[in-house]
Amino acid sequence: MSLWLAALLGLVSGSFLNVLIHRLPLMIARECGRDAARFDIAWPPSHCPRCRAQLSWRENIPLLSWLMQNGRCRHCQQPIAWHYPLVELAAAALVVLAVWLPYPGNLTLPWHVLLLWGLLALAVIDLKTQLLPDALTLSLLWLGLLVNLDGALTPLADAVIGAAVGYASLWLIRAVHMQIRSVEGMGLGDAKLLAALGAWMGWTVLPLIVLIASLAGTLVGLALIVVRRGAWQAQLPFGQWLALAGALALFGGDAWLRLWLG
Known about the structure:
The chain has helices at 2-32, 64-68, 83-100, 109-129, 134-147, 156-181, 188-201, 206-227, 239-261. The chain has 262 residues and is mostly helical. The two termini are 38 Å apart. The model has no long low-confidence stretch (mean pLDDT 85).
């Protein structure tokens, strides 16, 4: 029963994450353009991004509405992007895993879920826009330090060192790359995300996170080069792989470390 309730909570949270994923980059763009019209997470009400028709509550039921409408807007019949139901399913799966795998009944479960929601939102935003908004990365950073005031996930000293080392390590790589190539090879959003993961899980897990993220990004990049026969030249966002590695470390960091060291 708890798993079904976890899945339901995940679907509902996934619906909200879709709003966050869609609107947060637009909010940043509007702020840069100094648009005075109100546009935030709560306003305007949910609507089709193509025909602008406002959605009723029946069209806002997580996953079910998408299935009932055959993946199309009821008003303009344009296809609804696949990432909407996929984010809802991913959010549900993450909550179910958080309840089932690590520490059932543990008081740290809500913190695990919050971190996983944040990582999911950041991964999708980075994949779509190559942005890692400060509103999410810095919020996760400070929340991680607050959670660990009493050592809920890791001792506070490890959390503080993790935040500092996480940021400094990727900042240094970025600075060296800039000196050698005179081109920005990595954004500071990646450094802030790694700092946030260090604040949540401590500095000892950071090498594992960077290793998993680097391997995943490299393998996907090589696969794209092979599929496109060497013609692929696009940038590959690193934040999504950091988010994936952070989730894996959260679920089984000790096991991953033992596997690597052994």
